[in-house]
């Protein structure tokens, strides 16, 4: 009976260690905040480990330098760069608790066990002709190209 009690205590101790390790990983992931600045230096995006945009700074000069669609592209690219940094940081946090040979970034993206054919291709970029920046509604009852 004493052996059985010792085994149970050992299992509980292992569980507590694993739980503490998981709590540490969770805390470290929650603390990740990565920023990227556009090559022009006018846009800075900050992203969490989960890929959420948490801050966006756009210099006033960007509104004069770029048309709206161009500025949107700069924002999207800068946010993607910050997201890549955050994903890399998250991968470093979870790597020590994963089985050997597991790609932590693929696991976090949800693609760890998928083949390349199963991974959806990237979404196409929106057609610039779908932009409303050249539309006017002020001069008539229906929208038309300016």
How are the SSEs ordered, and which strands pair?
Blueprint: H1 2-31, E1 33-37, E2 43-48, E3 53-58, H2 60-65, H3 68-94, H4 104-109, E4 135-136, E5 144-145
Antiparallel strand pairs: 1-2, 2-3, 4-5
Question: How many strands, what sense, and barrel or not for the largest sheet?
Answer: 3 strands, antiparallel
Spatial order of the strands in the main sheet?
1-2-3
Distance between the termini: 87 Å
Topology, number of strands: 5
Describe this entry's structure for a reader.
The chain is α+β, with helices and mostly antiparallel strands. The protein is built from 4 helices and 5 strands; from the N terminus they run H-E-E-E-H-H-H-E-E. The protein has helices at 2-31, 60-65, 68-94, 104-109; strands spanning 33-37, 43-48, 53-58, 135-136, 144-145. The strands form 2 sheets. A 3-stranded antiparallel sheet has the order 1-2-3. It has a two-stranded antiparallel ribbon with strand order 4-5. The mean pLDDT is 84.
């Amino acid at each position: 009976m004493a052996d059985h009690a010792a085994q149970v205590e050992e299992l509980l101790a292992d569980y507590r260690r694993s739980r503490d390790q998981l709590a540490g990983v969770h805390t470290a992931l929650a603390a990740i905040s990565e920023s990227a600045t556009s090559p022009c230096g006018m846009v800075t995006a900050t992203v969490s480990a989960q890929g959420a945009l948490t801050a966006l700074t756009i210099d006033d000069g960007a509104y004069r330098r770029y048309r709206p669609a161009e500025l949107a592209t700069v924002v999207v690219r800068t946010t993607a760069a910050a997201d890549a940094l955050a994903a890399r940081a998250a991968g470093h946090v979870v790597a020590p608790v994963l089985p050997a040979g597991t790609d932590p970034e693929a696991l976090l993206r949800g693609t760890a066990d998928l083949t390349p054919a199963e991974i959806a291709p990237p979404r196409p970029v929106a057609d610039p002709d779908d932009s409303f920046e050249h539309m006017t509604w002020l001069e008539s009852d229906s929208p038309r190209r300016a």
